[in-house]
Amino acid sequence: MRRKQPSDVFKLLDMSGGRDSCWPFRGELNDKGLPYIQIAGKKHVVYRLTRQLVFDDLRSNDIGRHTCDNGADPTNVRGWVCCNPHHIIPGSTQDNSDDMTSRDRHGLNAHVVRAIRKLLEQGRTHEQIGELYGVSRQAITDIANGTTHGHVT
User: Contact, 35 vs 45, CB < 8 A?
Assistant: First the structure.
């Protein structure tokens, strides 16, 4: 039996839309919304691996930043993450946070956060709102307490 090679990752992607489209990972995502593949006993984040295989430009402390807004997200309702190496760029965690803030791409957009706050004001429970938006009760609690999305007015 042939051992898995790093290039086998491309067999798990839907590349039918061509070079410019998102390439969804067809495997399962972990609880953090990350697509991963295990090769020789080591887990690899798939979009980081594809970027490295094609461009070989990620340093060990770089993360893969999505330019397409179809990146990893624990509240992912799409059920897939883009792994097209042309949609991934190297950067730091701070670069990624800045991207998410500037593009309103941090789990829930400002419009949804405002709607959640309105439901909170109306007395809906955190659990009810979480079920409605497909996020955890804790995500709603964090919005209510201002722990997350504090910049949304």
Answer: yes
